[in-house]
Amino acid sequence: MVKSPYHAISLNMIAQKSGVTKPSLYYYFQSKEDLFLKLFDEVSREFEKKLEGVLYRELPANKKLHLFIETYINFFFTEKHLIRLLILRISKKDKKLCDKMRKTREDIVKKLEEIMEEILKQDRRKDQISPRLASMMILGMLGTFYVEHVEERKEIKVSPRQVADQIISFLGFDN
């Protein structure tokens, strides 16, 4: 569990908590920043793999959207301490991290956009609703769970499945 803010954590503390020597840690990471960026890469890669797994499932588009939302929310529920550390670390001055976060967000929007294109085509609303805009709105809804569950540290008494059910129903894609 993350108990200290990023600026208060030293490589020495990290080495002690992980049971390795500081020189061993420096062998793999040049700095705390380097370790942090590698951690971010690893977490975002794992998250994107889970979301990609949803894209390639043989499911109807509305079920795929449901699973995408469920997977997204579940990640926030299970990785909330790590996500809190990552978010607390973000600074506009940190161009590398901001660029990585923008790229990760764009990759997620593109994955969701693929599903939305399929849904809107089946729903015969492709000309009325932009798949990209719809994807960004869904991510906005999901961002609320980040704020409530991670940032505000409120326990949400619903499962990722229930969240997905509510969003799909609200969007009218539950037929």
Question: What's the arrangement of secondary structure elements?
Answer:
Elements: H1 11-18, H2 22-28, H3 32-55, H4 61-78, H5 80-89, H6 95-122, H7 131-151, H8 160-171
Helix pairs in contact: 1-2, 3-4, 3-6, 4-6, 4-7, 4-8, 5-7, 6-7
Number of domains: 1
Counting helices, strands and paired strands, the structural category is mainly alpha
What fraction, in percent, of the residue positions are helical? over 70%
Which superfamily, in CATH terms, is the homologous superfamily? Answer: Tetracycline Repressor, domain 2
Quickly name the level 1 CATH class. Mainly Alpha
Radius of gyration: 19 Å
Q: What's the gist of this structure?
A:
Helices cover 73% and strands 0% of the residues. With 175 residues, it is an all-alpha fold. It has a single domain, classed as Tetracycline Repressor, domain 2 (Orthogonal Bundle).
Q: Please, could you describe this protein's structure?
A:
This protein is mostly helical. The protein has one domain: Orthogonal Bundle (Tetracycline Repressor, domain 2), CATH 1.10.357.10. It is 73% helix and 0% strand. The protein is built from 8 helices and no strands. α3 packs antiparallel against α4. The longest helix has 28 residues. The radius of gyration is 19 Å and the shape is elongated. It starts with 10 loop residues before the first helix and ends with a helix. The model has no long low-confidence stretch (mean pLDDT 82).
Which keywords apply here?
mainly alpha, Tetracycline Repressor, domain 2, 8 helices, 0% strand, elongated
